[in-house]
Specification:
The chain is of the alpha+beta class. The protein is built from 5 helices and 17 strands. The longest helix has 16 residues, at 16-31.
Length: 269
């Protein structure tokens, strides 16, 4: 029985393994009656991303954080977003057709950056990082819900989502946070504690309805680098940066409720 007008986008890396998987997947989906467009279609019911976690993140940014749910086929290193192995494509298609899955929401992090002459709005899936240009030490005032927390000095600060907690955040000594928890995490990068600057040495987890505000000291407003999911951005004359969890989320299909814990064990233990 044909699936009339059921469109699925397949987004894939340009490596041999991903291209091969794309052709196999495309042929099997067409046989099931799905239509696979040559270019990204905003009317699709599903985005399938072939590659590693990096490909997953790039696809979400490239297509402007779509409402269409995602699922990942892993042809890269073991990833937290890419849960289907190429050998399990038949099982995946069967379960998808039978709606044997749950839809999970991935919380994002948003930053409103105010400069002397402008304002900018950024969305991150894993994290937004404030660092010094050319590895310079940065000096930042950190506020939680308008309460002054610390006068930070060091390499920078990571503001990570639960989904991103197992990435750069974890590598920098931050905590692993279960993806469904509505929180943000502030993780210091090489913090310096001195008589002048009092920096927390460990990460801090804050509720998702609280705003984090970071203000660079006036001498350092032009020495800040902002990194969103690995993409570097530079703004002049930064006055303040606010971080919070937006209403906007990304949807992801989950076919195995134990996948997160299995991934965690496989990747880190």
């Amino acid at each position: 029985m044909a699936n009339d007008n059921r469109i699925i986008n397949i987004i894939y890396n340009n490596d041999e393994s991903s291209i091969k998987t794309y052709h196999i997947l495309k042929e099997k989906l067409i046989k099931k009656g799905f239509f696979i467009p040559k270019t990204y279609d905003d009317n699709a019911e599903l985005n399938i991303c072939i590659g590693g976690d990096g490909a997953f993140l790039r696809a979400i940014h490239r297509y402007n954080f779509p409402d269409i749910p995602f699922i990942g086929i892993n042809t890269g290193h073991l990833g937290f977003f890419q849960e289907i192995l190429p050998d399990n494509i038949d099982e995946f298609i069967e379960r998808y057709v039978n709606r044997d899955y749950v839809v999970e929401k991935i919380f994002l992090v948003k930053s409103d950056i105010t400069t002397k002459n402008n304002s900018f709005h950024l969305l991150g899936i894993n994290e937004i990082v404030i660092k010094g240009i050319k590895s310079k030490v940065v000096h930042l005032e950190v506020f939680i819900d308008d309460n002054h927390l610390e006068r930070f000095s060091g390499d920078g600060i990571i503001i990570s989502t639960p989904a991103g907690s197992t990435g750069y955040n974890y590598s920098s000594g931050g905590s692993i946070v279960y993806p469904s928890l509505n929180t943000l995490q502030i993780t210091p990068l090489s913090p310096i504690s001195s008589r002048v600057y009092r920096s927390l040495l460990n990460s801090t987890i804050v509720p998702g309805d609280i705003t984090i505000t970071i203000k660079p000291e006036y001498r350092y407003e032009n020495s800040i680098l902002v990194v969103v999911d690995g993409m570097e951005l530079k703004y002049n004359d930064i006055m303040e940066m606010k971080f919070y969890i937006p209403e906007k989320t990304i949807s992801k299909l989950n076919f195995d409720k134990n996948m997160y814990w299995n991934n965690l064990k496989s990747k880190f233990l």
